[in-house]
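Lab manual, section 2.4: Encoding a predicted structure.

Procedure: take the sequence of the chain (177 residues), apply the prediction step described in section 2.3, and record the output as structure tokens. A sample record is shown.
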Amino acid sequence: MRNALPAILAALLVVAWAAAADAEPARLLANCLLGLGLLWLGWIDWQQMRLPDALTLPLLALGLAVTWVAQPDALPDSLLGALAGYCAFRVIGLGYRLLRGHEGLGQGDAKLLAAGGAWLGWQALPWLVLLAALIGLAFALTRHLRGTSITATTALPFGPAIALAIWMGRLYGLPGL
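Recorded output:
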């Protein structure tokens, strides 16, 4: 039970944060499902450097379903957001692999950004990527300040930063949206 306590507290924090941002029951439920899914994905990526399809793909589908039910007119924006998010990160990942000879941005990151596009629409993608990059830099700086050596070859999980950017974008919106 003691090992489960941090996970339980983190989940309760996500629910409380969602309720503080928007307590309307349907949006609160959607936001809690999104937040808990993002928390789970971020934790797995932080621990294992992977984002499992079994979580990213249902989160993407849920984003499309929530948009379809809550804002049917925005469904094309969400579909385009999912497609553009995935394709953008896959192209960047392939380019990195061609230049450096190894993976630098995984398919899980692309699928998670696709989920973000499904939840927030294609217009949010540049802001999501910028916010995720800033959060990722803050994570790296924090690790460095705590004594971890960070070099050009240090592998760092990007999923937690993407997840936090999606979460903040969903709860508070992003510029231009």
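Check your result against the sample. The chain has one domain: 5-172.
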